[in-house]
Every structure is written in structure tokens, then in C-alpha cells.
Design a protein that fits this description.
Elements (H helix, E strand, L loop, with lengths): L1 H38 L3 E5 L5 H7 L4 E2 L8 E9 L5 E9 L8 E7 L5 H20 L28 E13 L3 E15 L3 E17 L4 E18 L4 E12 L4 E14 L9 E16 L9 E17 L2 E12 L2 E18 L2 E12 L12 H5 L9 E11 L16
Parallel strand pairs: 1-2, 1-3
Antiparallel strand pairs: 3-4, 4-5, 6-7, 7-8, 8-9, 9-10, 10-11, 11-12, 12-13, 13-14, 14-15, 15-16, 16-17
């Protein structure tokens, strides 16, 4: 009996050892199979400044995410532009590289102005999934992909009782204070826009109030500025390269020494590239000639309390968004007809470049050559006005700029998301 028990015990032990060995072998085979499938997944680089990349990585797990575009087999380039309703149109361009060279595609997603952040990111994910299917279909992962169709009601034509008009009302305020100083800022605006392919109409009115107080040992310094105005623009499409329009405004500003100013300016614009390509490239030439009538709060340095002026403006704007980066630059010149020496030249630019693997460069700058400050008050500004920026000051130039450089190296993959302790 004792020998029988020993035999049964030995048999059970051998069985357990075999079971563990088989289980481990199966687990390793399963893990190896999964890793083999994952290694065949397309390598993707997502080029998007305002996308929730972590959310995309958790929702789309059938691709490998890489941190450099040159390591990718698919470069996904996402650009945006505002729609007439106040929403955003996302243009998602799929650019095949390496094994997928020549396999390119473009899909679009349009968000509504009332969409939440979650609705927008889910819409982007839906478009990304649709665009990636054709690439994944050429890998071993194809057998693991299923496609479903969400049946919808039969579409019917809808009558728009608003006739494409979009209205927006905004009210904002900001308060800040401590023992020695207090500030309050109030702002309100109302806008009405109607955007169609043939006609663009924008109107807005606004008012702002800014007050600050500083308590010193023997005195109190106060700062108060107000600004309000009405602005409008109407643009008519001529063809895919030309547009004509007219803009105007009425405004007053304590900072600019403007009691009341009125302006009306017709304009014409030519785009070297078709407007239909505006999400990727634009080279626009705009010419505008205007009439302006101004009344001033105080007598100006030219002994004027009011005057009527005519001016002209020519501007050139370049905007390019490509896989290697983006460029945005505007050069604008203007002058008054009664005195050509009263002129202004300004240049602004933004540049973002992917120089080579892992290295990116960002440049931005603005420079103004100013000779047209006709509304400057004749009296000298007080120290309080200078320090608190309550009034415009005489200058012949303004400038600003920034430079940024980043270099990333290490693993090419970015598949893992870990939200612990925040970002």
C-alpha cells in the first residue's frame, strides 16, 4: 500500500510539473504570437499640435506609434481651419512611406461649435481608424480587424431657418486683488457671421473696461482704460484665386486717443494657389484702399482735434503646412495719401521645422517700422501713464521674437500610456 501511495504521489507530481511546463510554453507561445502580430503592425507618426495623442493611443491599438516621422511607415498630418458655423474642419492626410510609399489619402472631420472636447477627439479617432484600415489590411493583423456599419435613418433635406447665420454673445470678467493693488477687467462682444462658398459676412461689436488701483504709503495711483467698437467684413468669391470685399469699423479708445473713428475700405485679394488647398498652402496678395474720419480726445502732436484721411495697404501672406514643418509669414506696408512719409511696414513670421531625426526648431518674430502715429496726444505723458501703459507712446519701431530647439532620442516607439500622477 505504501508503494502504491508513493507511485500515485510521484504520478501527481509529474503531472503538475508537466501542466506547469505546458502552461508556460503555451503562455510564451501566445505572448510570442501577440508580439509577432504587433511587430507587423504599421509604424505611425501623428503630426498634430492640438490632438489628444494619449487618447488616440489608447483607442487605436492596432498600430505602433513612433516619435519621429522618418521612422514611420505612415505619416498622419492633421490641419485645421474654422468653418462658417464657428466649428472646426480637420483635414487628415495619410502619407505612405517606406513599405507604403505612394499610398496616400485625405479624409475630413467637421466639429460643431457646441461639441465637447470628448466628442471632438472621438470624431478624430473615428476618421483615423477609417484611414488606417487600408494599411492594416496589408499586414498579418488583417484577420484581427472587423468592420461594423452603424445604420442611420434615411437622410432628408433640412430647411435652415437661420439661412447660415451664426450669432455669438460673450461676456467675460477678470478680478484680482491684494492689500496694495486691485484690478478689474470687463469685456463683452456680439458677433454675427454668415459663411457660404460664395459669400462671407462677418460683423462684431465689442466693449472693454480695464481699471487698476495701486495703494502707496502716501498716495493712490489709478489706471482706467476703455475701448468699444463695431467691425464688419463682406467678401465675395470670384473664382478659386480671386476675391473682392469691403471692410469697415467704428471705434473709440482712450489708449489710442480716439474719441470716435469711422473707416470704410474696399479690397481685392489674389491667392496664387487655389483656395481649396488653403489647409496646406496659401500665398495671398491683398490690396486695400480706405477712407477714415477721426475725432480725438485730446489735441494731437500735429495740432489736430479731428481729420479725414485716405490710406492704402498692400500685404503678402504665405502659409505652408507640410510634413517637414510649417511656415507662416506676413509682410504688410501702408501709408497715408496726404503725406507718404506717414507710413508703416511690418513683418511677422512663425517657423517650425523638423530638421532631422529627433531635432526640431521653432522660430517666431514680429517687427514694425512705425511712422504713422497721427493720434498721439500733444501733451507729454505722465509717469503713471507710461508705467501703466494707459496711453500710446511715440516710437519708430516695435519688435518681439522667440527661438526654441528640442531634441528627442531613445526608443522610437510611443505606444504606452500611463496617466498616474498626471502628465
Amino acid at each position: 500500500m505504501t508503494n502504491m501511495k508513493r507511485f500515485v504521489g510521484s504520478l501527481l507530481s509529474l503531472g503538475i510539473v508537466c501542466l506547469i511546463f505546458v502552461s508556460r510554453s503555451y503562455s510564451q507561445d501566445e505572448r510570442g504570437s501577440t508580439e509577432a502580430l504587433r511587430s507587423s503592425a504599421p509604424r505611425v507618426y501623428i503630426d498634430c499640435d492640438r490632438c489628444d495623442i494619449d487618447f488616440i493611443r489608447t483607442e487605436i491599438t492596432f498600430v505602433n506609434y513612433v516619435r519621429d516621422r522618418k521612422e514611420a511607415q505612415i505619416h498622419i498630418f492633421i490641419t485645421t481651419q474654422r468653418t462658417g458655423s464657428g466649428g472646426t474642419e480637420y483635414t487628415v492626410t495619410f502619407i505612405g512611406q517606406r513599405d507604403y510609399a505612394g499610398m496616400n489619402d485625405t479624409l475630413k472631420f467637421v466639429s460643431e461649435p457646441t461639441d465637447t472636447e470628448d466628442q471632438i477627439r472621438r470624431g478624430i479617432v473615428r476618421v483615423l481608424k477609417m484611414g488606417l484600415v487600408r494599411y492594416v489590411a496589408k499586414t498579418n493583423l488583417a484577420d484581427q480587424i472587423s468592420i461594423s456599419f452603424k445604420r442611420q435613418a434615411k437622410p432628408t433635406s433640412m430647411e435652415d431657418r437661420w439661412d447660415n447665420w451664426i450669432f455669438n454673445i460673450e461676456l467675460d470678467n477678470f478680478l484680482r486683488g491684494e492689500k496694495a493693488n486691485k484690478s478689474i477687467w470687463l469685456h463683452g462682444s456680439l458677433s454675427a457671421n454668415r459663411i457660404t462658398p460664395d459669400l462671407k459676412i462677418r460683423f462684431s461689436m465689442y466693449a472693454s473696461y480695464n481699471e487698476r488701483k495701486f495703494e502707496l504709503e502716501d498716495s493712490t495711483i489709478s489706471s482706467l482704460s476703455r475701448k468699444q467698437g463695431l467691425w464688419g467684413l463682406v467678401v465675395k468669391s470670384i473664382d478659386d484665386h480671386f476675391s473682392v470685399g469691403i471692410s469697415g469699423f467704428v471705434y473709440s479708445s482712450t489708449y489710442d486717443n480716439i474719441k470716435l473713428a469711422f473707416s470704410l475700405a474696399p479690397a481685392i485679394e489674389y491667392n496664387l494657389f487655389p483656395y481649396s488647398e488653403s489647409t496646406r498652402r496659401e500665398l495671398r496678395f491683398l490690396y486695400r484702399v480706405g477712407y477714415m474720419s477721426s475725432r480725438y480726445n485730446e489735441e494731437t502732436i500735429f495740432d489736430k482735434t479731428s481729420e479725414i484721411l485716405f490710406d492704402e495697404v498692400l500685404s503678402v501672406t504665405l502659409e505652408v503646412k507640410q510634413t517637414w514643418g510649417s511656415v507662416s509669414a506676413t509682410l504688410e506696408g501702408s501709408h497715408y495719401f496726404h503725406d507718404f512719409s506717414k507710413n508703416r511696414l511690418q513683418l511677422s513670421s512663425n517657423l517650425s521645422l523638423h530638421l532631422f531625426k529627433g531635432l526640431s526648431l521653432r522660430l517666431s518674430g514680429r517687427i514694425f517700422m512705425i511712422h504713422d502715429q497721427l493720434s498721439l496726444p500733444k501733451r507729454e505723458a505722465t509717469p503713471e501713464e507710461v508705467l501703466l501703459r494707459r496711453t500710446q507712446l511715440a516710437t519708430q519701431y516695435k519688435y518681439s521674437g522667440s527661438v526654441g530647439l528640442s531634441y528627442t532620442f531613445g526608443s522610437i516607439y510611443k505606444n504606452v500610456v500611463n496617466p498616474r500622477f498626471g502628465d
